[in-house]
Amino acid sequence: xxxPKILAVKTFVIELCxxxxxxxxxxxxxETPLDELLPLGVKALLQKNGVHTVxxxxxxxxxxxxxxxxxxxxxxxxxxxxxxxxxxxxxxxVLSPLTHVKGSSLNGALSPAIVRILARGGITTVDQLKAxxxxxxxxxxxxxxxxxxxxxxxxxxxxxxxxxxxRRPAPTLPDSAGNLLTDI
Length: 184
What we know:
By secondary structure, the protein is an all-alpha fold. It folds into two domains: about 30-95, DNA polymerase, domain 1; about 95-160, DNA polymerase, domain 1 (Orthogonal Bundle). It has helices at about 5-25, 40-50, 55-60, 65, 75-85, 110-120, 125-130, 135-140, 145-155; strands at about 175, 180. A two-stranded antiparallel ribbon has the order 1-2. Strand 1 (about 175) and strand 2 (about 180) form a beta hairpin. The longest helix has 24 residues, at about 5-25. This is Helix-hairpin-helix domain-containing protein.
């Protein structure tokens, strides 16, 4: 007695769902995924910042893109070349997301990382930096040759300190009796 009514209800539900399923499959896709339009690293940065489609990139261009963490001018130019050929946005000023060292006159002249390392080494002014010898600068913890080259290019153009290539002395290790061994 109840079987025909249940069958009718199932048929009605199937009839209601079927046109919706076909219309959703036939509808054109409105959002275009990023796919292979950008290098993998740039695409990953965009996705970390919530941009997953071409339309999202167009909405974020230019100001929001420049505010995304990890996107500097180089990656911005790659995005611009892929999605906006012929356009070249020039920002009035690009602010570094990193904080500057308070009281240092080296802010802006050198990268924030170098300014912080120099400040930890006691150098916060241009005069202090110019008075320091390259060998002294290399003794500052975490300041390497690459950073020294950047300092040279900004404050000592045309000068190039030759880093000594001598071997460091072998470490002295104690033997089982506690005596220091110098020949290993």
